[in-house]
Structure formats: C-alpha cells, structure tokens
Amino acid sequence: MHSTSIHCSTFDDLAQSLKGIASPDLLQLYGAFSREEAEQWAVSLSEHFPDACRIGMASQRHISNGHVYQHGATIIFSYFEKSHLAHYSAPYDNDDPVASGEKLFTPFLNANEKDQARVYIVLIDSKSTLDDAFFTLTKRNTLTISGGRAGLFDQEQSWVLHQDTLYQDRSVAVGIICPKLTQQRDVFVDSIAIGRRMRITACEGNIVKKIDHLPAQKVYQRYLTNGEKIDLSVANQFALTTVNNNIEVNAIPQQWHSDGAIVMSEALPEGAWVKFLYFHPAHSLHSTLPKIQSLNEQRPESVLVFSCISREDFINGQPTDKLNLLNQVRPLHGCYCFGEFFSTQFGTKVMQHALTYLALSEGQNESKRDITPIQVQSEHTSLAPMFNLIDNAFQDLEEEHASMSIHPVGNLNRDWLYDIQTGLLNRFSLLGRLNNRQDVYHLAVLRIRNFRLINQQYGYDAADDVFAQLTQYLKRRLSTSSVGIEFTCYRLSANEIAVSIQNDIAPIKIYRMFRQLAESIESQEFSITNQIEHWLTLSLSVGIASAYDQQAQPLCEQSHLLIKASEARRFAQMNNQPICWNGDLLDNATPEDNLEWILKIRKALENDDILAYFQPYYDSKTGKEIGAEALLRARINDKIVSPALFLDLIKQTQLYAKVTLVMLTKCEYILNHYPNTHVSLNLSVLDFKHYATLKALRQFFKRNQVNGRLTLEITESESIQDYEWISPIINEFREAGALLAIDDFGAGYSNLEKLVALSPDILKLDGCLIKTIDKDEKLQKLVQNINNLAHSLGIKTHAEFVHSEAVMQQLVDLNIDYLQGYHLSEPVSESDWLDQKTSGLPENTCEP
C-alpha cells in the first residue's frame, strides 16, 4: 500500500490538481471551510472517483506531504494491494454516546470473522466534547481506532463526509480488512503532572467548586501566583488531571465563577484525586525519539497523523519537533482535531493536546527503502527537566508516605525505603504499602533468569547496570504504552522487580499487558557498558497476582499479593511459561490451604500415591527411543496433579526428602526388572545437602550396577554455586555408573562455568531456546553454537519442549542428539510405559 496527498488553496485549484491521479481505494478530505463550501468539494470528488471510499471532516489545520496548512483543503489518497474496506456512518447523540457507538460499530462486528477489521479510521462531528463511552463496544472487542473529532473555531460550521453526503452530529468509520495488515501506533502528549495530589471535594457537572475543601480558584491562585489574582489565560495552561473509570481525564479551566468555582472543559467526579497538568511542548521530546527510531526500523508504508488543534507543531507551514521527526519516517498526511482517538489494550479514549499516528503496512516487502537514521535538530533550552524534577520529588514523597507503617515522628531518615542502585522503592516499602493501604489491585513480579550468569561473566557492577537499564525501559514502556495506568516499581532483590497497579482493571488486560512487556523486553538488547561490543538479551519469568478475579470476586487479600505473585512466577519458570496469573493456579492460597496441601502429600506418601510418570526421549538420527525421564506426580482425590502445585511448599518440610526417596525406589525397580531400559531422575542441590537422601543415594549405588542406564539431572535454576563441595559427590556417583545431565541449560544465555566445573555427559536445553526455534533465526544460531561447543567437549545435547513437527525437524537439522516433548510423546504412567516394553509392539519412534 501507499498514500499520497495534495493541498488545494481554493476550489478552483481542485480540478487541475486532480489530473493524472489514479482512483484510490480510500480518499480522505480535510478542509478549513464551512459545510456549505465543502459540498462542492464533495460533489467534485465523487465525480472524479466514484469507486473510492470517501470520508472526511472539517479541520482547522491539515497536513499534506509533511506540510501544515491553515486554509483550503488536503486530500489524502490511499492505495491498497491486499486489503479491502468496509465503511458505515451513524448519527451521534451527545446525550447517549454508548448507543451512538453501538450504532456505528455493530455493522462491522456483525460481519463474518474473516471480514472483520482490526484497524479503523473514525471521524465524528459533535457540538460538545466527546465522551469516551462512545467506544464502549469497541473496548469489549479490542479494536484499534485512530481518527478524531471534526472542528472549526466556528464549531457550528463543522461537518463530516461519508461518500456523497456531508453531515453534522454524525460519526463515520472505515475498517481496513487484511489478514497481513500490520499497524503501529503511538501517542505523544506534551504534558507533565506537577505537584501533590489534591481531592475534588465539591463539584456539579463541569463546575469544580472546591478542591481540598477550598474554593477552586483559591487553589489555583495559591499554587500558581502565590495567592495573587490569576488570569484565565494563564490558568488554562494548567489542567487538572485524574483517572476516572480507568480513563484519563484532563480538565481545563474555561470560566471563573463569582463564588470561587471554576467551569472546566471536562467533568471531574467528586472525590477524585487530581494533580496539576502543565502543557509544555519540549517535555516529551527525549522519550519520543527512541519510539520514532523504532517506528522507522519497521519501515511502514503509510503514516497518518491526527493531532490536537492546540499543538503548535509548525512554523510557516514547516513541521517542528516531533512532527518533524515523524516526517522523516514517511511524508505525513493527516489533520488537526478537536479531540483525537487512541487505542490501547484498555480501550479507546479521546485524547487532548496530543499527537497520535497510525502507521500501516500490508505485510513484508523486501523491496522497501533502506533505513535512513532519524536526524534530530539541536534541542533548545527547556524547562522540562525542572518540571520532571519537581514532579518526581512529589511522587517520591507520596510513594514514601504510601509505604510507611507507623514510625516515630522524629525518624526523618527514609533511605532504608529505597534501593541505592536504581532509586526504586524496595521490598520493605512494598510490604508497607500492601499492609497499610488498600490501593493496589494487581502486582507483577519480574525475575531475570539469566542474571547470575551476567554476574559471573561480566561482574556485579555490569549486572547491576543491566538491571538499571531494564528498570528504565520498563518504566518508559509502562508510562507511554499504557495510558491512564497508575503504577509503582520496586526492586525486590538483585534480579527481581515488582510493579504494583493502582487501577481496578480486569486481570486479563493486566495479563496481556505484562505478556507483551515481557516479549518486548526479551527482544531488546542491553549493553554491557564496560565492554561496548557486548550486548545481552534478558530472559524473564513473570508472575501476576490480582486481588479480584475476572468476575470481580475476591481472589486474595492485598497483603498477600507479593506471596501470590511470587508463587505464580515460580510456576511459570518451572513450566517453561513466560508468565502466570495467580487466578490460574489451583493453589489459591491461604495459610490453611498450604497446611492442607502438606497433609495431602503426607497422606499420598502413606497411601503409595506418589507416582512416577515417564516421558520418553529419542535419538534424533534413528528415531528410536533411548530412555525416559521420571517425572513426579501425586494422586490427590483421584486426580493426578503436577508437582508445580506442591513442590515449592514441601521443600520447606521433611516430606521433600521422602518424595525423592520414593522416586529413587521406582527408578531402582525399573532398572532391575528391565535391564535394557534407561531412565533419568531429577535431583536438586537440596537432595545432596540432605543427609538421609545422600546416604540413600550412596546405598543405592552400592547395591546396583547401573552401567550408564541412570542419568542424574541437575537443574541449572537450582543455583549451584559451591562447585568444590558438590563436584566430589557427583564424581562419586559417576564412578558408580551414573551419567550426569545439566537440566534447563540456556535460560537466556547460560552458565558456561558449569560445563567446565561439572563436565556433564548430557546438556538439556531449556524450553525457552526450543519453543520458537523453527521461526527464530537467532535462536537457531545460538542453539547451533551451544551444540557445537558441547560436542567439542564430548557432551551430548538433549532438547526438551519439542511440540511440533517443524521444531523437531529444525533440531534434527541442527544435529541435536536427543529429542523430548509432547509432539513425540506426552508423559505416561509407569504401567503404560512399561506395557510398551512388554507388549511385543515396536517402541514409539520419531521420524528424523
């Protein structure tokens, strides 16, 4: 696809300007003239391009090929190769925005699934400020919407166009339908919230009467002019901002009342917490540049802009600041609105004082232009750093207050609440907040899985620096891509960050937000500052805990959110999942529930309900089964349950050692009764540290000649650190005939020190390296290099998580020695696996 545009100063210029222009699929008309004048433009365009989808609206300013115009009209022509369009219009009723939105979008959503668009351009004419409720239906269906509200300074003359007709008080939408359509969008807001939070204590509609029980005008005078009379032109540079029903509201003073009240542009609910919002054009330039550079690397085919009429993005028609940066990606086309639309996973909202864009492409195109780096003009001296400093100081004070328990008045040293390295609040601060304030609805815990490796290879200072880079990236993404979300970041430990969400949002949306964040972080490169040529990618495991479930029913107490989020994160890591939510865990956790689980496992041990399931693995060259991994299961209430539900819990008790001995006994039975069978057994560092378990292992090897038929798997995530202590024990068992495997190798980058210190027989590659290897060329190269290194050291390689034919074939091509996963065989009970050995039927095989 591609887009181009023309600007015509007068209607007389139109016919000449249209010569030689092919009929487009989509035509957009934006004009700075009245409805009456616009009619002749609409008729002419209909005659020239009768087959095009034609939309448009009144726009005081508009953009053609990167230039800004305040007169005449801009006409945008878009040509699609793989997309088709659907378009409808509907009346807009200011008194019932929800019904108005349903009338517009229902025809789109009633279409067959394959004909439903995910990207929409929406134009609306309304005589008053648009209500976000208009997009209620689209919020439930997660639609991406760009566009804006029509407007002239003489608002009574505004209009929207749909095909041949111009309307007032109407909405128009075009849906772009294409399976391979890709879109990038963002919003740039030149504003910053400054000062402390204040509460609206009296209001009526759009009239704010009192703030913190003082007349609203007095509050403006107190903070902006030290109590002196304030001019309205100064006050309307400072909005009051709040979040109401998960939607950001920015209310601007429009009129003084004689009683000290203020007429605002938006209604602010009584009881809402507000802050002053200052609009400053240079504030967001620093954070904007990386996003525009990222957009440039995506090579979009068209970029459409919908900017606020209040923004001064040009001088004599030439773009400045962010508009100029965007114009380097693609020549811009678009218009200025009296309210522009922006969609996130939390719905679509009507923005103010913002610049939004929609960048579109119809799939990959190898013939696209080379990327030209974005050129940044020299920055002018700006007050933005000072405003940032003021706002962050107030934010620190509020977060500190939220985190405090009752402390002596004289204790003014609060350094213990902060992490020195990152400046984030710490675990003590988070616990204080969870125990003393009921304002956290969700908590996410993010752990860097390969942090210890970074420590060992590059040093503690480098690892801390990478952690700080991650912190800044996380805060920037949450601030810019999750409009309206109130969050606070905490450093829990050397490699863990917690993020609290202070909005009552559906858990599924929080889950999606952090899943996308985790994917984005794992695709980023972080630098080792003392070794410029070194770049790292981070591997994460994420756990989320919510106070309420999808049906708004209580899920756990706020004070337990950190425990629940940590449990969910451990479950995610143990099951090779990037993220887990506490509502998906069966163990939803009161202390009484934990005690009950301990009792259940104790009874399972007494009743011989601790079971071994076996998942076979295969030779990649011959396809023959080599052996099987013994996997722990428990029969609870006649159901087979995973150890993820109880293993971490029982590790704190003596039951763990007993469970290990049961698994060892089951492996011993198989090795003695099936002499041609090979099994592998998972052991942790705890097993080697437990006296009774270590004694049982030594006795096992004294009475059994395993002769290479038993593999002991040591999990890398168990954090083996004291090699001098554990190596003699492992060597003792290897001399008795056992093989050694390192499990979960390669979570991110892996610990090569273990290859030298432990010299294993087998290297089991972590699922994060395997699950997308059929699609990810970087993973293919990484696994190939690990495989080559292992083979050069005489070590076999073993890939888990083989879940598809494509993944299996890729691993075969890479010469991985052993393959294991659900595509080949799911874990089966001991009896079922042994039946295969005695049935006389050929063993399960995989085709190399």
Automatic annotation (TrEMBL):
GO terms for molecular function: cyclic-guanylate-specific phosphodiesterase activity. Gene3D superfamilies: 3.30.70.270, EAL domain (3.20.20.450). Residues 594-841 form the EAL domain. It comes from the Bacteria. This is EAL domain-containing protein.
